[in-house]
């Protein structure tokens, strides 16, 4: 296929959807710095602190389910507008919560927005990006998550001495990025795949023409029509052979990405550093270093994901994460679990995740599903990754402080290793493939899952 890519316009659309990732990262990480102050404010136990952190994640489970059910009816753009409004409202509600029960309720509702955007934004990026740059555009989404995390860490540090209500100001800062996201989504077009699903082929052609040129747009519209199933997508559609195989692979990746520890490391970074001998101020300052490490290595992924492919990066990243966690276990057993050593290997762990796992997951998952069922199908991996995330974050304080650091970190290391093995055995390579081509690839494979 001959493609004349309008890279500036594609980047604009990718950045628009990626702003949802910024809010995703911001809402996930803003509680990181607020955690020590919340514990004092509401006198929380280990499980109480875990509930404060994970309440948003349980909301994410519900949010991604609702978004998945509605996106093929109302479109990606309309739901992203609703999500932007919900982000702003729940930021204020969390900041003003007078009791722990209302705080948890507000965080749960914020999770609806995070869960929805985690499904909608990657889907939007996948559907507006030409194959040659789709990996890089997916990386923009992961990069924006990291930027959101860095911004939240920065606000946490700046507001740490803002008085008894410092944690309330931390949550209130989420209103500003929500407003920016709202404006950008209003100005963005709907995705060509959704427009085609609704029979709006001329509008779909116009978007494709602007991103890829006239000739490529004509070829893509023809291919989309040929691959568009006539019946409306239902849950039964997910049982088609190709879709079923894709679901199994995506579900495995969704669970493993969180039981290998990424959100527990990010969310509880200050608590981990404090357990390694850091004071509160130093622990909060170190989270900024963590965020900058994530950002720097996400930039690495931007340049290599479309060159080396999804599968090799995932395998290398999983092995690197497993080894860095294994070294942390050794430091615990040897009595060397102290400030600089802990920070160093957490940074190495995050470097492998940021360069290899995070961007690939959010790029690969929406790529592997057919156009007509992508909304419903995306519910499965996104819901499962939020469920695994919520349970990991809920139980981590208890496991780390009661069961023990070595066993907890050792379990995460084993899960990271399992992630690499699963990828080697079952994950296909989707680099430089059109979405319609990937669909046919799953269906035509004679193997349980296609492996290149």
Please tell me about this protein's structure.
The structure is a single chain. Helices cover about 80% and strands about 0% of the residues. With about 450 residues, it is an all-alpha fold. The chain has a single domain, classed as Up-down Bundle (Growth Hormone, Chain: A).
Number of structurally distinct domains: 1
Shape: globular
Instruction: Give the integer mean of the pLDDT values.
Output: 84
Helix content: over 70%
Percent range for β-strand residues: under 5%
**C-alpha Rg (nearest Å):** 21 Å
CATH architecture: Up-down Bundle
CATH superfamily: MFS general substrate transporter like domains
The CATH C-level name is Mainly Alpha
CATH topology: Growth Hormone, Chain: A
Q: In terms of structural class, how would the helical and strand content be classed?
A: mainly alpha
Total helix count? 19
Write down the secondary-structure element order: HHHHHHHHHHHHHHHHHHH
Query: Span between N and C termini?
Result: 22 Å
Number of strands: 0
Low-confidence stretches: 446-452
Please render the helix and strand layout as text.
Blueprint lengths: L6 H36 L3 H29 L1 H21 L3 H29 L5 H25 L7 H7 L2 H13 L4 H6 L3 H12 L1 H14 L13 H19 L2 H6 L1 H7 L4 H29 L1 H25 L4 H29 L6 H30 L1 H22 L8 H10 L8
Helix pairs in contact: 1-2, 1-3, 1-4, 1-5, 1-6, 1-7, 2-3, 2-4, 2-17, 3-4, 3-6, 3-7, 4-5, 4-16, 4-17, 5-14, 5-16, 9-10, 11-16, 11-17, 11-18, 11-19, 13-14, 14-16, 15-16, 15-18, 17-18
């Amino acid at each position: 296929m001959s493609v004349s890519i309008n890279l500036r316009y594609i980047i604009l659309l990718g950045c628009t959807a990626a702003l949802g990732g910024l809010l995703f990262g911001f809402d996930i990480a803003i509680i990181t710095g607020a955690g020590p102050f919340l514990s004092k404010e509401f006198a929380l136990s280990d499980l109480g602190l875990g509930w404060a952190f994970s309440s948003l994640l349980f909301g994410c489970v519900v949010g991604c389910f609702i978004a998945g059910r509605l996106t093929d009816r109302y479109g990606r753009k309309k739901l992203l507008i609703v999500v932007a409004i919900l982000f702003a409202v729940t930021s204020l509600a969390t900041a003003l919560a007078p009791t722990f029960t209302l705080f948890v309720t507000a965080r749960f509702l914020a999770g609806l927005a995070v869960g929805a955007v985690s499904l909608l934004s990657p889907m939007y990026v996948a559907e507006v990006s030409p194959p040659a740059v789709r990996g890089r555009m997916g990386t923009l989404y992961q990069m924006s998550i990291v930027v959101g995390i860095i911004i939240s860490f920065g606000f946490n540090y700046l507001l740490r001495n803002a008085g008894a209500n410092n944690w309330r100001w931390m949550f209130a800062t989420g209103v500003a990025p929500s407003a920016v996201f709202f404006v950008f989504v209003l100005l963005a077009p709907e995705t060509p795949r959704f427009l085609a699903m609704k029979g709006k082929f001329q509008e779909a052609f116009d978007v494709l023409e602007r991103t890829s040129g006239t000739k490529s747009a004509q070829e893509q519209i023809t291919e989309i029509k040929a691959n568009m199933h006539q019946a409306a997508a239902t849950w039964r559609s997910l049982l088609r052979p190709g879709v079923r195989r894709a679901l199994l692979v995506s579900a495995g990746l969704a669970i493993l990405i969180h039981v290998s520890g990424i959100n527990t490391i990010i969310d509880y970074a200050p608590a981990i550093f404090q357990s390694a001998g850091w004071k509160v101020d130093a622990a909060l300052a170190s989270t900024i270093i963590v965020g900058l490490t994530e950002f720097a290595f996400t930039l690495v992924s931007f340049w290599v994901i479309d060159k080396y492919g999804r599968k090799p990066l995932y395998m290398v990243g999983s092995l690197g994460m497993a080894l860095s966690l294994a070294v942390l276990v050794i430091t615990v057993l040897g009595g060397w679990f102290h400030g600089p050593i802990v920070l160093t290997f957490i940074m190495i762990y995050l470097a492998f995740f940021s360069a290899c796992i995070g961007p690939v997951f959010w790029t690969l998952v929406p790529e592997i599903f057919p156009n007509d069922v992508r909304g419903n199908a995306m519910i499965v991996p996104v819901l499962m990754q939020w469920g695994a995330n919520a349970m990991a974050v809920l139980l981590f304080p208890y496991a780390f402080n009661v069961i023990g650091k070595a066993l907890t970190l050792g379990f995460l290391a084993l899960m990271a290793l399992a992630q690499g093995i699963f990828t080697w055995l079952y994950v296909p390579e989707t680099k430089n493939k059109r979405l319609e081509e990937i669909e046919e690839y799953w269906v035509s494979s004679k193997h349980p899952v296609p492996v290149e």
